């Protein structure tokens, strides 16, 4: 036993020494990891944006004040898969600080990654003028490949469609309108096999033939739906109880009950007459001099009907409502004078004269349609044409009211470096203004706006000596509990509350019971709880931001534009000196030249000259032409 012990002491070890090979230098490898310190719960596999990963990692490190050497060691724990293999291929002993490691990381993955847009970019995808629904669906499928991955439910939710109608309809007629609207969208999307679900027993029963459609209008709805269903290769009709149809029911109540910000998340279609009336080709022109009145005139004058049986049936149904006087067609009314029927060209002239002629006031669409009726004129698409004319009128658009609701969703901002400072160098003094006044530049960011409020309230008493009061305003800010954190900035920085002037005027309990030796001991103990106090405050601040976002987004009406869209710009922002009671609210139009990011755009004039500044969607509205 003694001989074995002497042999072990002589050799000094049981085997060869293992040398640790690492891309880090010896200085980094010798750094002791704090007990219990682990890498943050974020992982990088080489398929996402390396800048996002670095930003999240560095923010976590800054919040916990981690040393540079420890940052290097912990960063390896956030790598997975191909990223780990890349790290192991780095030369031995070449990384001495986190800056070097971050640069190598960006060089390796920054070039190969093409960042994808956030899926909220799909909100800006709208149907262009003249674009069919099938073309929109094709463009939608192409755009999905350019955004971040999302589940099928989110993709479908972004393509939700809502149908509104402005005419009076019974509950059963409204159910038919919704059902037929869904069928039409499915046909536009070139769907061959469809399963239709509705919470209307009447509509499903009549379409299946289990119930009889006795009322005339419901028979027309049923026939229209059956005609459209015949264009599918197969279809299935299913009745769904109302309590199981909540998602569609929410869309049905869009204009009344759910928050208005949902309107920006759906595509809305407005119908001003029953769907079976829209099927009548009232303005279809088949030859020179032919108008929507031609079939009616032929029938009333000569008894001739169109060759198409369906068209002939429509003409026979419409004829009793009209009367022919010579070559002029009139529409009968209930207890009033007959209305002269106009062709498409005459209707356009009448609408323009009533809306923007000599005795006009650029009134709304419904008022415009009523005035045309009162003046004795009629054509089948009067209300629709009035809506289109008012929407595209340049004068009405320039004087349109400014929306009061937010136009984008709220994005909370948090400062990661609370004690950071920045400076600004100015070359030369500012020029003197009128009355030998000198200008000063004051740069204030979002996080210090409360400082400005405090200065403004004391400015009228102090005049030009407001700078001397700045330290007192800052002290008031630092010793006031913030609503977001529930703590004072001073306590979060130092771990205990400051002694304020009021405690000098009237001693508080802690001042009266102050013992220097005991106070030092208590402060030393409390210093160990400072980080926990900061973490609790950070969580409270995040929850406060979430509450603020929910409150803000309930009121938001999202507006988005694409490159090539024409927009108007707020006059008060672009031409602030041209105000007045009679000044227009908007000026332009301008063309969207570039989408800088969601909600921010670069504009160009109608001549193609790009504007220098970027403009937020808050100051823009769509221009119709």
From TrEMBL:
GO molecular function, one term: RNA-DNA hybrid ribonuclease activity
The RNase H type-1 domain, residue ranges: 165-255
Occurrences of domain Integrase zinc-binding (ranges): 345-399
InterPro entries assigned: Integrase_H2C2, Retrotrans_gag_dom, RNaseH-like_sf, RNaseH_domain, RNaseH_sf
Residue stretches making up the Retrotransposon gag domain: 73-164
Family annotation (PANTHER family): RIBONUCLEASE H
UniProt name for this protein: Uncharacterized protein
């Amino acid at each position: 036993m003694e001989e074995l012990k002497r042999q072990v002491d002589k050799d000094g070890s049981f085997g060869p020494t293992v040398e640790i090979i690492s891309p880090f230098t010896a200085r980094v490898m010798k750094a002791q990891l704090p007990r219990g310190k682990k890498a943050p719960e974020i992982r990088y596999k080489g398929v996402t944006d390396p800048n996002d990963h670095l930003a999240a990692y560095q923010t976590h490190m800054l919040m916990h004040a981690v040393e540079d050497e420890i940052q290097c060691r912990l960063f390896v724990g956030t790598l997975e898969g191909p990223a780990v293999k890349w790290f192991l291929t780095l030369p031995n002993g070449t990384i001495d600080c986190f800056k070097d490691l971050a640069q190598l990381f960006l060089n390796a993955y920054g070039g190969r990654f093409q960042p994808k847009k956030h899926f909220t970019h799909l909100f800006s995808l709208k149907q262009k003028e003249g674009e069919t629904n099938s073309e929109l669906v094709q463009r939608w499928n192409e755009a999905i490949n350019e955004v971040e991955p999302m589940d099928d439910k989110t993709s479908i939710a972004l393509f939700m469609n809502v149908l509104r109608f402005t005419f009076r309809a019974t509950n059963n007629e409204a159910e038919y309108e919704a059902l037929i609207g869904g069928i039409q969208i499915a046909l536009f999307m070139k769907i061959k096999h469809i399963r239709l679900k509705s919470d209307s027993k009447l509509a499903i029963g009549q379409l299946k033939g289990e119930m009889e459609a006795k009322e005339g209008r419901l028979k027309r709805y049923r026939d229209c739906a059956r005609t459209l269903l015949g264009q599918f290769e197969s279809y299935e009709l299913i009745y769904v109880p109302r309590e199981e149809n909540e998602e569609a029911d929410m869309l049905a109540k869009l204009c009344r009950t759910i928050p208005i910000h949902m309107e920006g998340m759906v595509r809305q279609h407005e119908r001003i007459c029953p769907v079976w009336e829209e099927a009548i080709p009232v303005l279809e022109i088949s030859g020179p001099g032919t108008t929507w009145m031609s079939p009616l005139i032929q029938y009333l004058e000569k008894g001739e009907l169109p060759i198409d049986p369906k068209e002939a049936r429509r003409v026979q149904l419409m004829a009793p409502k009209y009367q022919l006087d010579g070559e002029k067609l009139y529409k009968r009314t209930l207890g009033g004078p007959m209305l002269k029927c106009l062709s498409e060209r005459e209707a356009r002239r009448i609408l323009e004269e009533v809306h923007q002629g000599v005795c006009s006031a650029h009134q709304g669409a419904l008022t415009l349609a009523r005035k045309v009726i009162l003046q004795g004129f009629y054509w089948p698409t009067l209300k629709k044409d009035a809506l289109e004319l008012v929407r595209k009128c340049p004068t009405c658009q320039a004087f349109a009211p400014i929306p009061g609701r937010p136009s984008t969703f709220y994005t909370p901002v948090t400062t990661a470096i609370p004690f950071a400072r920045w400076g600004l160098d100015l070359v030369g003094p500012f020029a003197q203004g009128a009355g030998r006044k000198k200008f000063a530049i004051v740069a204030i960011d979002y996080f210090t706006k409360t400082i400005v409020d405090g200065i403004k309230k004391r400015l009228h008493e102090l005049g030009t000596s407001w700078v001397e009061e700045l330290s007192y305003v800052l002290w008031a800010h630092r010793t006031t509990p913030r609503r977001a954190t529930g703590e004072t900035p001073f306590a979060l920085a130092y771990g205990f509350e400051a002694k304020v002037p009021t405690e000098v005027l009237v001693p508080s309990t802690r001042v009266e019971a102050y013992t220097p030796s005991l106070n030092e001991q208590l402060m030393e103990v409390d210093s160990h709880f400072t980080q926990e106090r900061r973490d609790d405050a950070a969580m409270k601040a995040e929850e406060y931001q979430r509450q603020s976002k929910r409150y803000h987004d309930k009121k938001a009406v999202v507006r988005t534009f694409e490159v090539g869209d024409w927009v108007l710009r707020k006059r008060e922002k672009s031409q602030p000196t041209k105000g007045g009671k009679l000044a227009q609210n908007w000026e332009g139009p301008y063309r969207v030249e570039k989408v800088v990011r969601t909600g921010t755009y670069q504009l160009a004039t109608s001549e193609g000259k790009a504007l220098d500044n970027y403009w937020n969607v808050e100051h823009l509205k769509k221009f119709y032409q």
